[in-house]
Fold each of these.
Amino acid sequence: MSTVHLPRSASEALLADGTTVSIRPLGPQDHRAVLALHTDGMSEESRRMRFFGVSRNAPAQAADRLCGERPGVLAIGAWAGEELVGEADCELLEDPPETAELALAVADRWHHRGAATLLLEHLVHAARSHGVRFFEADVLFGNRAVLQVFADLGLPVERRFQQGEVRLRVPLDETDERYRTAVDERGRRADVASLAALLRPASVAVVGASRREGSVGRTVLGKVRRGGFTGALWAVNPHTGEIDGVPAYPSVAALPAVPDLAVIAVPAAVVPGVAEECGAAGVRALVVLTAGLGAEEARRLMAACRRHSMRLVGPNSLGLAQADPAVRLDAEFGGAFPRTGTAGVAVQSGGVGIALLQRLAWLGIGVSSFVSLGDKYDVSGNDLLQWWESDGRTDLALLHLESFGNPRAFARTARRVTRTIPVLTVDAGRSAAGRRGAASHTAAAATPTVTREALFRQAGITAVHSIDELVQTAALLHTQPLIAPRGAVAVVSNAGGIGILAADACAEAGLVLPELPQELAGLLPAGASVRNPVDTTASIGPVELTYFLRALEREPAIDAILVCLVPTALSTTRDGDPAHALLEGPARRRVPTAAVLLEQQVPVRLRDCAFGGELPVYSDAVAAARALGHARERARWLAEPPSAPADAPDCDRRTARSLVDGYLTAHPEGGWLDPLSTADLLTAYGLPLTTSVWARDEEAAVATAAGLRRLAHAGEVALKAYWPGQVHKSAAGAVRTGLATDDDVRAAYRDFTRRFGAELAGAVVQPMAAPGIELLAGVVQDRVFGPLVVLGLGGTAADVLADRVARLAPLSERDLTTMPAELRSAPLLAGVGGTPPVDLAAVRSVLARLSRLADDVPELVEADLNPVIVHPDGAVCVDARVRLEPRPSFDPYLRRLRRPAAAEGK
Ligand code: ADP
Ligand code: MG
């Protein structure tokens, strides 16, 4: 039995009540703690459940087994500060291990806080990465607590009853969606519980509030006080007893009670010490406003937060605000107290935050909570999404993110949250220059645009290009009913030319403009046109317009209305308001309506309607159309039921694993696989590689070719020279196709020898595939985002036309259909001019298998199948390249808190 290696480093995670615990493998130094857990930590009854009896030696034996370097034992412990809360262990029963025998114990005083489940999740992860596929455990019949833990885990548990015991068997299938969903739900609850101290604190201390007016600490203190915070407020300042009417104390320890939240505005060098002091006192959350922490300061700050179970916003944060009247906390130095409302706002950059709050204030959109994430050491966009999803107030999420800590976990959360509330984000770093800025701004690796776009679209996030576009889109989504996914819009204008421009803008935003029934013309002045765009003529008056719009609203062919008005003497009512007619609409509109008033000076306003509700009024038709387009994208997303993960049957994981491990043992730095190993790896996952036979010299090539001709299209073969490290074969003259005779093959091989000389290692012989459409399919692993699956037009045209679509793995069943459909070449695949359609099922199978392979083998950093030649009946890949690199196995969905790069400094 091989020795088991676990990652030595700890990871932190949240218990159900929001407490942070640290999880790490047990070692000899933990012997005393493990013994204490099984003796002092557990009652006689708990011990009986754990050890099936009351043997006095059992605790000592357990400590020996768990802490010794016992081969085949995986043992992890969860720690709260110095205290061992619980342990979970398993013993691998076979070599190679398929099944492991599981046991766990939690100290009595830590029961009912989700420690056992959390430990189990981490043990599942560790066991899986050792190839374990089943846990088995014996549990006493009366041990309800442990039986419940298994029942709630989310994995399908088999139970067998035998003489007072239950024998459990749990398959650890990694793609089990039910398990992932159960983990998500536990993660959401724990996260929200831990965030309560930040976002609904009962008491707040501002540390570093000076007497000096205009200092950050003093400003925030003043804002909290004047904002009408409903809880207790104190200042911490060693030099004075009172600041701005707020009582001040010399230290956190000296405060009359322990604050839930501490807002820290002290110099960078002092931040770690203050954080430690807060933690020791029992503070539950920190907002660090200070910027410019060095690596060592960052590390110590994080260590204090984790050790003392404090959530952290910042550093370099502008602060946060909670508008709920029961709390009314305005602890930020950005702008005006946001009006109480229903929009959740989280920004990475403080400046963007100020601009965004300002515009929302102008618009009159109220805020539920606002968080300036700053350098995002701990609390991130992912946390806020879960908070808003659960706070019962927020119905619109506005995010500005420059970097992603764990994008795959974020995507999973967002995919769920966007089902209930719209999530809008400004897509920052679209250009190379912008990414450079983002990388230096947040010290995070820049992410290519395609990858971010894939993330947003797969998660149902509405991504916009500017703060203005964000606000303009929010104005529509916030006030108007959901548009039908069809997206049929009626454009109405009192100036024909303006209507045409608006119609163009709508079409460009992906909306459709259906023909309208001719009867509607009867409601308009003579000379008007009800072809869509509707030209009412400039002679229409407000009353006629109101009447017409009401009729239009009832028209079933219409899903949205866009009215563009140019001020004319006739269109304006006595009060001089051209929008008057539009505001007469019904209180509950059937279809979303937006207006464009060309003389309006601000880009967007929300106007109160006569019978209730609000109407978004834009100064520009392009902005209005774009907002409608985003609304329609969201409607489509909602109309699609969540799709199942793509199915890829009969993938031989074991073969792939041993191939990859074998290669990386021989090449620890990684590199490109040779053609035959490439074929073996891809074939293990059912990818349709053509037959490739290796020939080391001319004679072997001729003989092999003779054998392969029978399989080949038109009896011809392809010959490809190979030498280690080659890149593009055709460009180097290393590919010969359509070789029909022995002489052809011989001549081609001789030519290779002449060209490549001693470098030539041999050649690959393949049967020629029948002509078809050449596609490329591939995978690239992003360090942070994980694998991205790409499909495009392949062959020699690939680079010039750049007709590609990309999605993050794991792909869903729907991705398999939408990816080929989104190519510009899609009509080609469907068959044009009498050519039959290609076998799309074969294309879908290639995508599903690549996605599964990329997910199972994180070491596969690049795979390029180009071309995959698709026919009416099947697909075959004649050229594939695979690059491997050593990568630790990483489960993005394992519950653990962030490890910010900035705080990893040693
Ligand atoms: P590279 O991409 O390195 O230049 P390929 O092996 O993809 O080399 O070959 C280049 C082109 O030759 C392919 O895009 C394809 O059009 C054609 N080709 C190569 N092998 C075959 C084959 N076995 N059957 C049919 N066509 C082939
Ligand atoms: Mg190729």
Amino acid sequence: MNTQNPTTDAAASNLAGRRIVLGLTGSVACYKAAQLCRALVRAGAAVQPVMTEGACRFIAPATLQALSGRAVFVSQWDTRPADGMAHIQLGRAADAIVVAPASADFIAQLAQGRGAELLALLCLARPAERVALLLAPAMNRQMWAHPATQRNVAQVQADGALLLGVAHGAQACGESGDGRMLEAADLLEEVIAHFTPKWLRGQRVLVTAGPTFEAIDPVRGITNLSSGKMGFAIARAAREAGAQVTLVAGPVQLPTPRGVARLDVTSASQMHQCCLDCAGAADIFIATAAVADWRPEQVAAHKIKKTPGGKPPLLSFVECPDILADLAQSARARAGQLYCVGFAAESENLLANAQAKRARKGVPLMVGNLGPATFGRDDNALILVDENGVAELARASKRLLARQLVAEIARRVGAAGAAPEARR
Ligand code: C5P
């Protein structure tokens, strides 16, 4: 789970001020709903829990009350709303209803338009054109695979619900298969994605991230300082904005953003080949990786030994392929079918260096940042250099900057989803 502080979480997400009804139905996965509730609140959302009687058998309402800061609703006969109509009022006061976990029986109720309990009633009564219904199913693999469940799932989707999918793996019953509820962190990403304007819908985005590692011998090598955080944040933001994203990652220990296809590589040559292989099916290329400029000419077959009194080895280097320059010169880029974005990590004269690099690499957009002020950090500040001059993105979390950068790129490529009002 996210371990950043709440202020940073809220600033980095687009959930600040969003009103979310978090519905829980009877499933052992209710414990993950507690984590989701906390994550949503930390991301700035106002969460109103609503539980079925079945959910109350798995987790106490007091837990959800404490985590959300709101009294939990269970019964349709709750007298707190002045007009006694909790099933109407709660839905009207929400931006989205997220049911996690959604049991097989609850999905069946939805499919039939039944309202045996408050939660099903309020899903039925929600103003569907304004209040989305997101479902995170949780059940045994046989229940999930049953034709009745699959029929019901198809029906609720046809009726406008958004299905967040299920995970595969060990289940509480001891079996293993499809039907586990997604983890709270995955669900949080899905809720954030739901609220993200689809600036890049229909676009295919290729991103490189992290350092490369150039071997000297089987146990040593040279590399660059790069955590990969900025590139991973960009991949994530592009996917949230509706793009189909491929992330080519150097050696980093970062979790793959949800919904992103990740290809791991080690060296600059591997990253180069991988990007060449993928670029034919990309519309936008964002080169965030800190690729090594040189690699040792020879890679020793065995560890180079240190001998008493011996001289240090003399290494000679050859230049690594320049991935960005190569793709920027490709036929597709020159035909305007591949929009290339470079990154310039500098230690001084940021603007002049970024401008020079933009010209040298032949890319329409160069993003500049000061290396020592960003390496390994969760925040950054960027300048955007293009044919029109320079724009600044003020210091903020990499998550927020990535979102802003994606909006800027979408505007420049004239992506269908890039409406001017989407820039915020
Ligand atoms: O030449 P320099 O490394 O300063 O350029 C930085 C930009 O070029 C970044 O976008 C980086 O990802 C990309 N690059 C590349 N292949 C290289 C070197 C840099 O794609 N071999």
